[in-house]
Write a structure and sequence with these properties.
The protein is an alpha+beta fold. It has 19 helices and 14 strands. α1 runs antiparallel to α16, α2 runs antiparallel to α15 and α7 crosses α8.
């Protein structure tokens, strides 16, 4: 094993065993939610499982849906094939979608009580799906041994537990990551450091634009995440239960970044996004653009997407990773369940579905294929074994999470409340108006408080 691999493996093992990751874990266990129970169906009779391997000794057929990039699609499909080989009576249909398409399909399926048996779930949607009774309570399967939680990080278990019900199994641990093309920053004579302030990031963006012509993209179209990150530095939760928990003045200063960036030319034009799929790694302006006008020098994403970004990069691009900028990096940054595996309330055979999730999470065979693409495995023994065989880029991800973020972060916010989707749409619509010069940053700050609070308050009132 190379020195790099030995170092990263040791760091990861130490982090898991000493609770380093838990030090910046979820505070979700301290929150309360209301709504329907997550369990509306019963496990089908006759489906038996083996806890250690997660294999099913009976016949089962299920659908597993996930979003992601091509790297995730390939690795997950290969894992399904391996599971079917080990369990001849089990058939799993994989359904892969881009981020936006994925949630639209789930919304349609949920309306018709036709959700896939196993769904990849995101932290921001957990409240919504739990409160509407769409997720199966997996607690019975942790008690009977179908799902083995003995090597799992407790804070990540808490993150998927609501109202005492385990409705989501953490698929990996990750963190916010700013991925950038070092060939561009070197050409501009700019050094990118960890834990930059917002002012330092803007100064770097301006210099890069002035010297190379390359522009900056700050989560256009999906800005709720970066706005939430910045608001954490102000001690606020952007979308809280029933209201926008941020002042119009503070929000205005964040809209001002985009307003000034468009006026001064260093921010990528919103017209670029009319021709690409927002949220797609392969079509991100960092790797998809073909000239300085439509190509960004950086992208705001998640640490587990670093490998996919490097794979999508053009020849000659040197992709590196750092933290998102903030006025207070320690207050803003956090560790996050990258996504979850949930069993839907529509599942035909919940126990067989739980057995497959157990295999994905606890099996060395599965994780030798997945290789931490969804984030650092929650099973500490598996994480240690996987880290020892990762590529250099995967090692960078592990080291970034454990050595950079975990040592300088705060607890994650509770899951977004009901009404988040509508509030997020309002934010991105307002931001679009700012970028097109149709609205000032000051107006935008107040509009988001008004429109976002209206959406969140309506949902809060409806749930009472």
């Amino acid at each position: 094993m190379s020195r790099l691999k030995r170092s990263a493996a040791a760091a990861l093992a130490a982090a898991m065993s000493a609770g380093l990751l838990a030090g910046c874990g979820s505070s979700a266990s301290g929150t309360t939610t209301t709504g329907a129970a997550g369990s509306t169906t019963t496990a089908a009779a006759g489906a038996t499982t083996t806890a250690a391997s997660g294999s099913s000794s009976g016949d089962a057929s299920m659908v597993f849906a996930w979003w992601g990039n091509q790297t995730r699609n390939e690795r997950t499909s290969n894992a399904i094939t391996k599971y079917e080989e080990q369990n001849p009576g089990v058939k799993i249909e994989g359904q892969f979608s881009e981020w936006n398409d994925y949630w639209q399909k789930l919304a349609t399926n949920s309306a018709g009580n036709a959700l896939p048996d196993i769904i990849q779930m995101d932290y921001q949607y957990l409240n919504q799906y739990m409160n509407t009774g769409l997720l199966y309570d997996l607690t019975e399967f942790t008690k009977d041994g179908t799902i083995d939680t003995s090597k799992w990080n407790q804070n990540m278990i808490n993150a998927g537990t609501m109202d005492g019900k385990l409705v989501a199994v953490c698929a990996g641990i990750n963190a916010p990551a700013l991925v950038y093309d070092k060939t561009i920053t070197d050409k501009a004579g700019v050094t990118i450091k960890d834990n930059m302030s917002i002012d330092e990031f803007i100064e770097a963006s301006k210099k890069i634009y002035e010297t190379t012509g390359y522009k900056t993209n700050i989560q256009y179209g999906t800005a709720q995440e970066i706005f939430s990150y910045w608001c954490r530095a102000d001690g606020a939760i952007l979308f809280n239960t029933g209201k926008v928990d941020a002042t119009a003045e503070n929000l205005a200063k964040y809209f001002k970044i985009y307003e000034d960036g468009e006026k001064d030319g260093w921010m990528i034009s919103p017209t670029v996004f009319a021709e690409i799929t927002v949220g797609s790694v392969e079509q991100d302006p960092l790797v998809y653009g073909d000239n300085p006008e439509n190509q960004s020098w950086c992208t705001f994403c998640w640490s587990n997407q670093y490998v996919a970004v490097t794979k999508a990069a053009k020849e000659g691009q040197d992709m590196q990773m750092t933290t998102w900028p903030s006025a207070d990096p320690k207050k803003s940054d956090f560790l996050k369940p990258s996504q979850f595996f949930s069993v839907s309330a529509n599942a035909k055979d919940p126990k067989a579905a739980a057995a497959f999730i157990n295999w994905l999470t606890n099996s060395e065979d599965a994780n030798n294929i997945l290789l931490g693409e969804r984030g650092i495995p929650m099973n500490s023994d598996i994480a240690d074994k996987v880290s020892a065989q990762l590529s250099e880029n995967d090692q960078k991800t592990y080291s970034f999470v454990n050595e950079v973020v975990a040592k300088n972060c705060s607890d994650i916010n509770p899951p977004y409340p009901d009404g988040y989707t509508e509030a997020g749409k309002a934010l991105n619509t307002i931001l679009e108006a700012v970028c097109y010069g149709q609205e000032t940053a000051e107006q935008a700050g107040q509009d988001l408080v008004d429109q976002g609070t209206a959406a969140l308050a309506a949902k809060a009132a409806a749930s009472k």
